[in-house]
Amino acid sequence: MSLHQVLFRTQPMGCFLHISRGISLSATLAKNRKSGVPKITPFRTKPLTYEEAIPPSRMNVRKGWLSFNTSNLHEEKRAGETTFEDFLVRRFLTGTWHGSLASEVVIKRRHNMLVLSFLVSMERILPRQVYFLQGYTERMLSGWFKMPVKIELQTVASQKDMIFKKI
Amino acid sequence: MATFNLYRAFRFSLNVSKSKTKDIELKSCRSLHMSSFLRNAENGDVVNATEETSAEAEEFRVFEIEGLKKAVSARRAERATKRAPPPRYRSMPTDQDWTDVWPTASTFKWSAVPFPVRQGFVENSSENEGVIPSKYANLELMKGPNFLHLTPAHVKKHCKAIKHLSTKWPEGLETDEQCHKHFPLESITSDYVFAGPSLEDDRARLASIKFKLSDLELDYHAKDKFIRLVGDRYNADTDEVLFESNRCPLKSQNLEYVKFLLTAVYFESWKTETWEQGKQLSDMETYVWDMNKSRETCLTLLATMRAKDKGSESVGDLKLSGAEARAICDLAEVREYKTAVENLFNDGENSETLDAYKAAVERLLQLKTAA
Which residues make Cβ contacts (< 8 Å) with residue A15, sequence separation at least 6? Predict the structure, then answer.
Protein backbone atom coordinates (compact mmCIF):
# COMPACT_ATOMS: atom_id res chain seq x y z
CA MET A 1 0.00 0.00 0.00
CA SER A 2 1.46 3.24 -1.07
CA LEU A 3 1.60 6.33 1.03
CA HIS A 4 -0.88 7.99 -1.24
CA GLN A 5 -3.40 5.26 -0.61
CA VAL A 6 -2.91 5.51 3.12
CA LEU A 7 -3.49 9.22 3.04
CA PHE A 8 -6.51 8.80 0.85
CA ARG A 9 -8.08 6.31 3.22
CA THR A 10 -7.49 8.40 6.28
CA GLN A 11 -8.73 11.60 4.67
CA PRO A 12 -11.91 11.95 6.75
CA MET A 13 -9.91 11.69 9.92
CA GLY A 14 -7.32 14.00 8.45
CA CYS A 15 -9.94 16.62 7.75
CA PHE A 16 -11.14 16.36 11.28
CA LEU A 17 -7.69 16.94 12.64
CA HIS A 18 -7.22 19.99 10.50
CA ILE A 19 -10.14 21.83 12.06
CA SER A 20 -8.78 24.36 14.47
CA ARG A 21 -10.28 27.33 16.16
CA GLY A 22 -8.16 30.40 16.70
CA ILE A 23 -8.75 33.46 18.75
CA SER A 24 -9.55 36.57 16.76
CA LEU A 25 -8.35 39.71 18.44
CA SER A 26 -9.56 42.18 15.84
CA ALA A 27 -12.72 44.17 16.41
CA THR A 28 -15.83 42.76 14.76
CA LEU A 29 -17.33 44.86 12.01
CA ALA A 30 -21.00 44.11 12.53
CA LYS A 31 -22.10 46.35 9.73
CA ASN A 32 -25.07 44.22 8.77
CA ARG A 33 -26.44 43.72 12.24
CA LYS A 34 -28.84 46.50 13.11
CA SER A 35 -31.51 46.63 15.72
CA GLY A 36 -34.95 47.77 14.70
CA VAL A 37 -34.18 47.79 10.97
CA PRO A 38 -36.18 45.09 9.15
CA LYS A 39 -34.49 43.13 6.39
CA ILE A 40 -35.51 43.52 2.78
CA THR A 41 -37.33 40.61 1.15
CA PRO A 42 -36.35 39.44 -2.37
CA PHE A 43 -39.48 40.78 -4.06
CA ARG A 44 -40.21 43.60 -1.69
CA THR A 45 -43.40 42.09 -0.38
CA LYS A 46 -43.07 42.75 3.32
CA PRO A 47 -45.45 45.52 4.40
CA LEU A 48 -44.28 47.99 7.01
CA THR A 49 -46.09 50.60 9.01
CA TYR A 50 -44.67 54.10 9.37
CA GLU A 51 -43.45 53.22 12.85
CA GLU A 52 -41.58 50.17 11.58
CA ALA A 53 -40.27 51.85 8.46
CA ILE A 54 -38.41 54.61 10.27
CA PRO A 55 -35.20 53.27 11.83
CA PRO A 56 -34.34 53.99 15.45
CA SER A 57 -31.57 56.32 14.33
CA ARG A 58 -34.24 58.75 13.10
CA MET A 59 -36.04 58.73 16.42
CA ASN A 60 -37.42 62.13 17.39
CA VAL A 61 -36.57 63.43 13.93
CA ARG A 62 -38.98 61.55 11.70
CA LYS A 63 -41.02 59.78 14.34
CA GLY A 64 -41.90 60.50 17.92
CA TRP A 65 -41.61 58.55 21.14
CA LEU A 66 -44.06 55.87 22.16
CA SER A 67 -43.90 56.69 25.87
CA PHE A 68 -44.47 60.09 27.40
CA ASN A 69 -43.73 60.46 31.09
CA THR A 70 -41.72 62.52 33.54
CA SER A 71 -39.57 59.73 34.92
CA ASN A 72 -36.66 60.19 32.56
CA LEU A 73 -36.31 63.90 33.23
CA HIS A 74 -33.42 65.14 35.33
CA GLU A 75 -33.64 64.21 39.02
CA GLU A 76 -37.02 62.54 38.66
CA LYS A 77 -37.90 59.23 40.21
CA ARG A 78 -39.77 56.06 39.20
CA ALA A 79 -37.80 55.50 36.00
CA GLY A 80 -37.59 51.75 36.57
CA GLU A 81 -41.19 51.35 37.64
CA THR A 82 -42.46 53.35 34.69
CA THR A 83 -40.44 51.35 32.20
CA PHE A 84 -41.62 48.08 33.65
CA GLU A 85 -45.24 49.20 33.63
CA ASP A 86 -44.93 50.24 30.00
CA PHE A 87 -43.54 46.84 29.17
CA LEU A 88 -46.41 45.16 30.99
CA VAL A 89 -49.02 47.35 29.29
CA ARG A 90 -47.65 46.54 25.85
CA ARG A 91 -47.57 42.82 26.59
CA PHE A 92 -51.10 42.86 27.96
CA LEU A 93 -52.53 44.82 25.05
CA THR A 94 -50.83 42.60 22.48
CA GLY A 95 -52.57 39.61 24.00
CA THR A 96 -55.90 41.24 24.77
CA TRP A 97 -56.34 42.86 21.37
CA HIS A 98 -54.89 39.84 19.67
CA GLY A 99 -54.77 40.20 15.89
CA SER A 100 -56.56 43.53 15.97
CA LEU A 101 -53.87 45.83 17.23
CA ALA A 102 -52.94 47.74 14.09
CA SER A 103 -50.24 49.91 15.62
CA GLU A 104 -47.90 50.22 18.56
CA VAL A 105 -49.31 51.47 21.83
CA VAL A 106 -48.61 55.08 22.73
CA ILE A 107 -48.44 55.40 26.52
CA LYS A 108 -48.96 58.86 27.89
CA ARG A 109 -48.91 59.67 31.58
CA ARG A 110 -50.68 62.75 32.82
CA HIS A 111 -50.36 63.16 36.59
CA ASN A 112 -51.68 59.89 37.96
CA MET A 113 -53.51 58.96 34.79
CA LEU A 114 -52.37 56.51 32.18
CA VAL A 115 -53.62 57.25 28.66
CA LEU A 116 -53.21 54.54 26.05
CA SER A 117 -53.65 55.43 22.39
CA PHE A 118 -53.50 52.92 19.60
CA LEU A 119 -55.18 51.94 16.38
CA VAL A 120 -57.49 48.95 16.13
CA SER A 121 -58.20 47.17 12.87
CA MET A 122 -61.89 46.34 12.46
CA GLU A 123 -61.36 43.41 10.11
CA ARG A 124 -61.82 40.65 12.64
CA ILE A 125 -63.63 42.35 15.44
CA LEU A 126 -67.11 43.75 16.01
CA PRO A 127 -67.81 47.17 17.49
CA ARG A 128 -69.34 45.63 20.59
CA GLN A 129 -66.22 43.55 21.09
CA VAL A 130 -64.16 46.71 20.88
CA TYR A 131 -66.28 48.30 23.58
CA PHE A 132 -65.95 45.24 25.77
CA LEU A 133 -62.20 44.96 25.34
CA GLN A 134 -61.77 48.65 26.01
CA GLY A 135 -63.60 48.43 29.31
CA TYR A 136 -61.88 45.19 30.19
CA THR A 137 -58.43 46.61 29.51
CA GLU A 138 -59.12 49.79 31.44
CA ARG A 139 -60.49 47.89 34.40
CA MET A 140 -57.70 45.35 34.61
CA LEU A 141 -54.84 47.80 34.17
CA SER A 142 -56.36 50.30 36.62
CA GLY A 143 -56.51 47.61 39.24
CA TRP A 144 -52.94 46.54 38.73
CA PHE A 145 -51.29 49.92 38.46
CA LYS A 146 -53.48 51.67 41.05
CA MET A 147 -54.09 54.57 38.72
CA PRO A 148 -56.91 55.42 36.32
CA VAL A 149 -56.28 54.05 32.87
CA LYS A 150 -57.97 55.65 29.90
CA ILE A 151 -57.99 54.23 26.41
CA GLU A 152 -58.26 56.65 23.51
CA LEU A 153 -58.29 54.30 20.58
CA GLN A 154 -59.11 54.86 16.97
CA THR A 155 -60.19 52.33 14.42
CA VAL A 156 -58.96 51.59 10.96
CA ALA A 157 -60.98 49.62 8.45
CA SER A 158 -58.19 47.26 7.60
CA GLN A 159 -54.62 46.44 8.46
CA LYS A 160 -53.80 47.42 4.90
CA ASP A 161 -54.50 51.05 5.74
CA MET A 162 -51.44 51.01 7.95
CA ILE A 163 -49.02 50.05 5.16
CA PHE A 164 -46.49 52.78 4.61
CA LYS A 165 -44.03 50.98 2.38
CA LYS A 166 -43.09 47.49 1.27
CA ILE A 167 -39.60 46.17 1.53
CA MET B 1 -94.11 0.64 -0.44
CA ALA B 2 -95.13 -2.67 1.07
CA THR B 3 -91.62 -4.08 0.91
CA PHE B 4 -90.26 -0.98 2.43
CA ASN B 5 -92.64 -1.26 5.35
CA LEU B 6 -91.74 -4.88 5.76
CA TYR B 7 -88.14 -4.05 5.84
CA ARG B 8 -88.65 -1.37 8.50
CA ALA B 9 -90.79 -3.74 10.49
CA PHE B 10 -88.04 -6.28 10.49
CA ARG B 11 -85.49 -3.79 11.71
CA PHE B 12 -87.75 -2.61 14.45
CA SER B 13 -88.44 -6.13 15.61
CA LEU B 14 -84.74 -6.70 15.93
CA ASN B 15 -84.45 -3.60 18.07
CA VAL B 16 -87.31 -4.70 20.23
CA SER B 17 -85.79 -8.09 20.83
CA LYS B 18 -82.48 -6.51 21.74
CA SER B 19 -84.01 -4.19 24.32
CA LYS B 20 -86.16 -7.06 25.59
CA THR B 21 -89.28 -4.92 25.63
CA LYS B 22 -92.44 -6.76 24.95
CA ASP B 23 -94.89 -3.94 25.00
CA ILE B 24 -94.59 -2.28 21.65
CA GLU B 25 -97.18 0.33 22.35
CA LEU B 26 -95.00 1.89 25.00
CA LYS B 27 -92.67 3.01 22.24
CA SER B 28 -94.50 6.15 21.47
CA CYS B 29 -93.62 6.21 17.84
CA ARG B 30 -95.05 9.11 16.01
CA SER B 31 -93.58 8.69 12.62
CA LEU B 32 -95.52 7.44 9.66
CA HIS B 33 -93.25 4.43 9.30
CA MET B 34 -93.62 3.43 12.88
CA SER B 35 -97.37 3.59 12.78
CA SER B 36 -97.33 1.45 9.66
CA PHE B 37 -95.11 -1.02 11.50
CA LEU B 38 -97.56 -1.20 14.37
CA ARG B 39 -100.21 -1.93 11.89
CA ASN B 40 -98.14 -4.77 10.48
CA ALA B 41 -97.06 -6.00 13.86
CA GLU B 42 -100.63 -6.85 14.76
CA ASN B 43 -100.53 -9.84 12.40
CA GLY B 44 -97.51 -11.85 13.48
CA ASP B 45 -97.24 -13.86 10.26
CA VAL B 46 -95.91 -10.85 8.35
CA VAL B 47 -93.13 -10.46 10.83
CA ASN B 48 -92.24 -14.10 10.50
CA ALA B 49 -92.14 -13.82 6.73
CA THR B 50 -89.69 -10.97 6.83
CA GLU B 51 -87.29 -12.89 9.03
CA GLU B 52 -86.71 -15.33 6.21
CA THR B 53 -85.66 -12.67 3.75
CA SER B 54 -83.45 -10.79 6.22
CA ALA B 55 -80.21 -11.77 4.55
CA GLU B 56 -81.15 -10.19 1.22
CA ALA B 57 -82.55 -7.03 2.73
CA GLU B 58 -79.32 -6.09 4.55
CA GLU B 59 -78.35 -2.46 3.98
CA PHE B 60 -75.15 -1.84 2.05
CA ARG B 61 -73.34 1.32 1.37
CA VAL B 62 -73.26 2.79 -2.07
CA PHE B 63 -69.86 3.47 -3.43
CA GLU B 64 -69.69 7.03 -4.51
CA ILE B 65 -67.22 7.93 -7.17
CA GLU B 66 -65.44 11.03 -6.23
CA GLY B 67 -66.14 13.94 -8.48
CA LEU B 68 -69.01 12.27 -10.29
CA LYS B 69 -71.68 14.05 -8.34
CA LYS B 70 -71.43 17.73 -7.89
CA ALA B 71 -70.76 18.35 -4.23
CA VAL B 72 -73.14 20.82 -2.75
CA SER B 73 -71.75 22.18 0.47
CA ALA B 74 -73.99 24.35 2.55
CA ARG B 75 -71.97 27.52 3.00
CA ARG B 76 -72.69 29.66 5.95
CA ALA B 77 -74.21 32.92 4.94
CA GLU B 78 -71.57 35.61 5.03
CA ARG B 79 -72.00 38.22 7.66
CA ALA B 80 -73.03 41.45 6.15
CA THR B 81 -70.06 43.75 6.53
CA LYS B 82 -71.10 46.87 8.30
CA ARG B 83 -69.51 49.89 6.83
CA ALA B 84 -68.33 52.46 9.30
CA PRO B 85 -70.31 55.67 9.23
CA PRO B 86 -68.57 58.62 7.59
CA PRO B 87 -66.25 60.59 9.88
CA ARG B 88 -67.81 63.16 12.08
CA TYR B 89 -66.01 66.13 10.58
CA ARG B 90 -67.96 65.74 7.34
CA SER B 91 -71.23 66.61 9.02
CA MET B 92 -69.96 69.41 11.20
CA PRO B 93 -71.52 72.82 10.70
CA THR B 94 -69.06 75.64 10.16
CA ASP B 95 -70.49 77.74 12.98
CA GLN B 96 -70.35 75.05 15.64
CA ASP B 97 -69.02 75.57 19.15
CA TRP B 98 -65.61 73.94 19.09
CA THR B 99 -65.49 73.69 22.88
CA ASP B 100 -68.33 71.18 22.72
CA VAL B 101 -66.52 69.06 20.17
CA TRP B 102 -63.21 69.02 22.02
CA PRO B 103 -63.95 69.80 25.69
CA THR B 104 -60.84 68.38 27.40
CA ALA B 105 -57.30 67.30 26.63
CA SER B 106 -57.45 64.31 24.38
CA THR B 107 -55.46 62.38 21.84
CA PHE B 108 -55.72 63.62 18.28
CA LYS B 109 -58.80 62.09 16.66
CA TRP B 110 -58.82 62.26 12.90
CA SER B 111 -62.57 61.85 12.56
CA ALA B 112 -63.32 64.85 14.79
CA VAL B 113 -60.77 67.31 13.48
CA PRO B 114 -62.28 69.28 10.61
CA PHE B 115 -59.10 70.53 8.99
CA PRO B 116 -56.72 68.57 6.76
CA VAL B 117 -53.40 67.82 8.40
CA ARG B 118 -50.52 65.54 7.49
CA GLN B 119 -47.58 64.32 9.46
CA GLY B 120 -44.65 62.12 8.60
CA PHE B 121 -41.66 62.02 6.32
CA VAL B 122 -41.59 60.47 2.87
CA GLU B 123 -38.21 59.77 1.38
CA ASN B 124 -39.27 58.76 -2.13
CA SER B 125 -42.20 57.57 -4.16
CA SER B 126 -41.93 54.02 -2.82
CA GLU B 127 -43.13 55.20 0.54
CA ASN B 128 -46.86 55.83 0.78
CA GLU B 129 -46.88 56.61 -2.94
CA GLY B 130 -44.74 59.65 -2.31
CA VAL B 131 -47.38 61.43 -0.25
CA ILE B 132 -47.00 62.52 3.34
CA PRO B 133 -49.35 60.37 5.46
CA SER B 134 -52.71 62.01 6.07
CA LYS B 135 -54.54 62.19 9.37
CA TYR B 136 -56.34 58.87 8.89
CA ALA B 137 -54.55 55.96 10.56
CA ASN B 138 -51.64 58.21 11.46
CA LEU B 139 -50.05 57.23 14.74
CA GLU B 140 -47.62 60.13 14.62
CA LEU B 141 -50.43 62.62 15.11
CA MET B 142 -51.67 60.64 18.10
CA LYS B 143 -48.31 60.70 19.82
CA GLY B 144 -47.69 64.30 20.64
CA PRO B 145 -49.88 66.46 22.86
CA ASN B 146 -52.17 68.90 21.09
CA PHE B 147 -53.74 72.18 22.06
CA LEU B 148 -57.15 71.63 20.55
CA HIS B 149 -58.60 71.91 24.06
CA LEU B 150 -56.92 75.27 24.72
CA THR B 151 -58.27 77.50 22.01
CA PRO B 152 -59.20 81.11 22.90
CA ALA B 153 -62.82 80.01 23.14
CA HIS B 154 -61.87 77.38 25.72
CA VAL B 155 -59.82 79.82 27.78
CA LYS B 156 -62.65 82.32 27.76
CA LYS B 157 -65.04 79.64 28.94
CA HIS B 158 -62.68 78.53 31.71
CA CYS B 159 -62.17 82.11 32.89
CA LYS B 160 -65.89 82.70 32.92
CA ALA B 161 -66.43 79.55 34.96
CA ILE B 162 -63.88 80.39 37.65
CA LYS B 163 -64.42 84.13 37.77
CA HIS B 164 -66.73 83.96 40.78
CA LEU B 165 -63.93 82.32 42.78
CA SER B 166 -61.49 85.19 42.33
CA THR B 167 -61.34 88.30 44.48
CA LYS B 168 -60.21 91.80 43.71
CA TRP B 169 -56.52 92.62 44.03
CA PRO B 170 -56.09 94.53 47.30
CA GLU B 171 -55.53 98.26 47.04
CA GLY B 172 -52.16 99.64 48.05
CA LEU B 173 -50.29 96.58 46.80
CA GLU B 174 -49.83 97.63 43.22
CA THR B 175 -46.04 97.65 43.13
CA ASP B 176 -43.40 95.23 44.36
CA GLU B 177 -42.07 97.83 46.78
CA GLN B 178 -45.49 98.18 48.39
CA CYS B 179 -45.84 94.42 48.64
CA HIS B 180 -42.42 94.18 50.23
CA LYS B 181 -43.22 96.92 52.69
CA HIS B 182 -46.40 95.25 53.94
CA PHE B 183 -45.19 91.67 53.63
CA PRO B 184 -41.47 91.69 54.33
CA LEU B 185 -41.29 87.96 55.05
CA GLU B 186 -41.26 85.75 51.98
CA SER B 187 -41.86 82.03 52.46
CA ILE B 188 -40.90 79.66 49.67
CA THR B 189 -42.32 76.16 49.31
CA SER B 190 -42.62 73.88 46.31
CA ASP B 191 -45.12 71.30 45.17
CA TYR B 192 -44.05 68.64 42.72
CA VAL B 193 -46.18 67.26 39.95
CA PHE B 194 -45.09 64.13 38.17
CA ALA B 195 -46.51 61.12 36.41
CA GLY B 196 -47.11 58.39 38.95
CA PRO B 197 -49.80 56.84 41.11
CA SER B 198 -48.77 58.76 44.22
CA LEU B 199 -48.80 62.47 45.00
CA GLU B 200 -46.04 62.22 47.58
CA ASP B 201 -42.64 63.65 46.90
CA ASP B 202 -40.05 64.00 49.63
CA ARG B 203 -38.61 67.09 47.96
CA ALA B 204 -41.85 68.95 48.72
CA ARG B 205 -41.18 69.10 52.45
CA LEU B 206 -38.42 71.69 52.01
CA ALA B 207 -39.59 75.07 53.31
CA SER B 208 -37.68 78.32 53.47
CA ILE B 209 -38.21 81.94 54.46
CA LYS B 210 -36.39 84.94 53.08
CA PHE B 211 -36.28 88.52 54.36
CA LYS B 212 -34.10 91.59 54.27
CA LEU B 213 -31.97 92.15 57.34
CA SER B 214 -32.72 95.86 57.21
CA ASP B 215 -36.39 95.08 57.86
CA LEU B 216 -35.56 93.82 61.35
CA GLU B 217 -35.18 96.22 64.24
CA LEU B 218 -31.56 95.75 65.21
CA ASP B 219 -28.90 98.02 66.66
CA TYR B 220 -25.24 97.78 65.70
CA HIS B 221 -24.40 95.06 68.19
CA ALA B 222 -27.53 93.05 67.52
CA LYS B 223 -27.06 93.21 63.77
CA ASP B 224 -23.44 92.12 64.09
CA LYS B 225 -24.45 89.26 66.37
CA PHE B 226 -27.32 88.29 64.07
CA ILE B 227 -24.98 88.06 61.10
CA ARG B 228 -22.50 86.04 63.12
CA LEU B 229 -25.25 83.68 64.31
CA VAL B 230 -26.82 82.98 60.91
CA GLY B 231 -23.45 82.52 59.20
CA ASP B 232 -23.66 81.87 55.47
CA ARG B 233 -27.45 82.17 55.48
CA TYR B 234 -26.89 85.91 55.22
CA ASN B 235 -26.09 87.29 51.79
CA ALA B 236 -24.21 90.57 52.28
CA ASP B 237 -24.62 91.60 48.63
CA THR B 238 -28.42 91.56 48.70
CA ASP B 239 -28.79 92.04 52.48
CA GLU B 240 -31.05 89.00 52.53
CA VAL B 241 -31.29 86.19 55.04
CA LEU B 242 -32.51 82.76 53.96
CA PHE B 243 -33.60 80.10 56.43
CA GLU B 244 -34.47 76.71 54.98
CA SER B 245 -35.23 73.35 56.48
CA ASN B 246 -36.20 69.86 55.41
CA ARG B 247 -35.50 68.12 58.67
CA CYS B 248 -39.17 67.62 59.62
CA PRO B 249 -41.37 65.18 57.73
CA LEU B 250 -44.00 67.74 56.71
CA LYS B 251 -43.82 71.01 54.86
CA SER B 252 -45.90 72.86 57.46
CA GLN B 253 -43.64 71.62 60.24
CA ASN B 254 -40.59 72.85 58.37
CA LEU B 255 -42.21 76.20 57.80
CA GLU B 256 -42.96 76.50 61.50
CA TYR B 257 -39.43 75.49 62.31
CA VAL B 258 -37.81 78.18 60.14
CA LYS B 259 -40.10 80.79 61.66
CA PHE B 260 -39.05 79.61 65.10
CA LEU B 261 -35.42 79.93 63.97
CA LEU B 262 -35.98 83.55 62.99
CA THR B 263 -37.59 84.35 66.34
CA ALA B 264 -34.88 82.60 68.31
CA VAL B 265 -32.01 84.24 66.42
CA TYR B 266 -33.64 87.68 66.65
CA PHE B 267 -34.02 87.64 70.42
CA GLU B 268 -30.66 85.99 70.91
CA SER B 269 -28.95 88.72 68.94
CA TRP B 270 -30.39 91.40 71.22
CA LYS B 271 -28.83 89.78 74.29
CA THR B 272 -25.34 90.83 75.33
CA GLU B 273 -23.54 88.10 77.18
CA THR B 274 -20.78 88.80 79.63
CA TRP B 275 -18.14 87.16 77.45
CA GLU B 276 -18.95 89.60 74.67
CA GLN B 277 -17.25 92.38 76.69
CA GLY B 278 -13.85 90.91 75.98
CA LYS B 279 -14.08 91.64 72.27
CA GLN B 280 -10.58 92.19 70.96
CA LEU B 281 -9.33 94.06 67.95
CA SER B 282 -8.97 90.74 66.09
CA ASP B 283 -12.64 89.97 66.78
CA MET B 284 -13.89 93.09 65.06
CA GLU B 285 -16.10 92.51 62.07
CA THR B 286 -14.92 95.74 60.36
CA TYR B 287 -12.02 98.16 60.58
CA VAL B 288 -12.77 100.54 63.45
CA TRP B 289 -10.42 103.49 63.42
CA ASP B 290 -10.97 104.26 67.10
CA MET B 291 -9.60 100.88 68.14
CA ASN B 292 -6.66 100.80 65.80
CA LYS B 293 -3.11 102.02 65.94
CA SER B 294 -3.90 104.59 63.27
CA ARG B 295 -5.83 106.73 65.75
CA GLU B 296 -2.98 106.84 68.22
CA THR B 297 -0.46 107.67 65.51
CA CYS B 298 -2.65 110.38 64.06
CA LEU B 299 -3.36 112.03 67.41
CA THR B 300 0.28 111.90 68.47
CA LEU B 301 1.35 113.39 65.17
CA LEU B 302 -1.12 116.22 65.42
CA ALA B 303 -0.21 116.94 69.03
CA THR B 304 3.49 116.97 68.15
CA MET B 305 2.86 119.32 65.26
CA ARG B 306 0.97 121.66 67.52
CA ALA B 307 3.67 121.52 70.15
CA LYS B 308 6.29 122.25 67.47
CA ASP B 309 4.25 125.14 66.23
CA LYS B 310 4.19 126.54 69.75
CA GLY B 311 7.98 126.28 69.92
CA SER B 312 8.15 123.53 72.50
CA GLU B 313 11.37 121.50 72.43
CA SER B 314 10.54 118.38 74.43
CA VAL B 315 8.04 116.58 72.26
CA GLY B 316 9.53 113.07 72.45
CA ASP B 317 7.40 111.73 75.34
CA LEU B 318 4.18 113.46 74.56
CA LYS B 319 1.25 111.99 76.46
CA LEU B 320 -2.30 112.97 75.57
CA SER B 321 -5.03 112.94 78.15
CA GLY B 322 -8.45 111.54 77.29
CA ALA B 323 -10.05 114.95 77.06
CA GLU B 324 -7.28 116.26 74.78
CA ALA B 325 -7.54 113.23 72.52
CA ARG B 326 -11.32 113.59 72.26
CA ALA B 327 -10.93 117.27 71.44
CA ILE B 328 -8.58 116.45 68.61
CA CYS B 329 -10.88 113.71 67.35
CA ASP B 330 -13.76 116.13 67.10
CA LEU B 331 -11.86 118.27 64.65
CA ALA B 332 -13.37 118.28 61.17
CA GLU B 333 -10.21 117.18 59.35
CA VAL B 334 -9.64 114.34 61.83
CA ARG B 335 -13.18 113.11 61.38
CA GLU B 336 -12.75 113.25 57.66
CA TYR B 337 -9.49 111.35 57.93
CA LYS B 338 -11.17 108.73 60.13
CA THR B 339 -13.92 108.16 57.61
CA ALA B 340 -11.43 107.99 54.76
CA VAL B 341 -9.29 105.37 56.48
CA GLU B 342 -12.27 103.28 57.52
CA ASN B 343 -13.66 103.36 54.01
CA LEU B 344 -10.29 102.45 52.61
CA PHE B 345 -10.14 99.33 54.76
CA ASN B 346 -13.78 98.34 54.74
CA ASP B 347 -14.67 99.07 51.12
CA GLY B 348 -11.32 98.19 49.65
CA GLU B 349 -8.94 100.19 47.57
CA ASN B 350 -10.45 101.93 44.62
CA SER B 351 -10.07 105.31 43.00
CA GLU B 352 -12.77 106.92 45.12
CA THR B 353 -11.51 105.75 48.49
CA LEU B 354 -7.91 106.48 47.54
CA ASP B 355 -8.78 109.99 46.36
CA ALA B 356 -10.75 110.62 49.53
CA TYR B 357 -7.85 109.36 51.59
CA LYS B 358 -5.43 111.59 49.71
CA ALA B 359 -7.62 114.65 50.24
CA ALA B 360 -8.09 113.83 53.93
CA VAL B 361 -4.36 113.46 54.49
CA GLU B 362 -3.63 116.70 52.71
CA ARG B 363 -6.14 118.53 54.87
CA LEU B 364 -4.99 116.81 58.03
CA LEU B 365 -1.36 117.71 57.49
CA GLN B 366 -2.19 121.07 55.94
CA LEU B 367 -0.09 120.18 52.94
CA LYS B 368 -2.32 122.08 50.62
CA THR B 369 -4.05 125.29 51.38
CA ALA B 370 -7.52 125.71 50.16
CA ALA B 371 -7.19 127.31 46.77
Answer: none
